[in-house]
Amino acid sequence: MFYFTPFPVRDYQLKGKTAPQQVTDITRRFTLQSFLQKGSITFDEYFVQDGEKPDDVAYDYYGDPTLDWLIFFANETKDPYFEWPRSEEQLRAYIIQKYGSLSTAYQTVHHYEWIVQQESQYKTNFETIIIPEKTVTVDYAKYITLVATERKSISMVDYEENLNEYRRKIFLYDTNLVEQIKEQHPIVFEEGLFVR
Question: pLDDT tens-digit profile of 10-42?
């Protein structure tokens, strides 16, 4: 991955090996604050489409698939394998693997919610405004005291689908910053401006 190219390399003794191995020091972090001026950093909002990979987004947005690390960086993604939104097919397979079956996942409650405000809408002269439902997570004891229209249980499937949908909304550095970041990325490591 391009991101790790300028990272320092260090010797590391692996079990079962007689000589130390040279490995990339992934305990270092590149930080934009190291070189950007005090001005604000601008982001663009982006919604990841079903099956779209980070390098696809980097290519479509920045014209360079090797800049996928910038996407992870902008979104503070620590584990790109588990924090990137899954395709519908991948999500289904993940749920089956994690819970044993879709049926079990649908029947298992993740948590309970109190609906404190129903979804509503009103019309203006030009558009319809939707006010989303608002809920609060509650325990089972509170849940059973609520009337049916004020409560809902969230299954493991609902939870995983909602989490996956939430992960689709990402932020991308404004394209005007990319050249500056690309130029400074190696310099940050050469000058020791990285952090642990």
Answer: 888 878 888 888 887 766 665 665 545 545 677
* Same-domain pairing of 180 and 142: no
Residue 121, domain member (yes or no):
yes
CA distance 73 to 63: 17
Same domain, 134 and 181: no
With a threshold of 0.70, does the pTM exceed it? Answer: yes
**In the chain, beta strands by DSSP E:** 9-12, 21-24, 43-47, 109-117, 120-123, 128-131, 134-138, 151-155, 169-173
> Domain limits at 147?
100-155
**Tokens 């479509």 -> residue:** 60
- Reduced to 3 states (helix: H, G, I; strand: E, B; else coil), residue 52 is coil
How far apart CA 126 and CA 75 sit, in angstroms, is 35
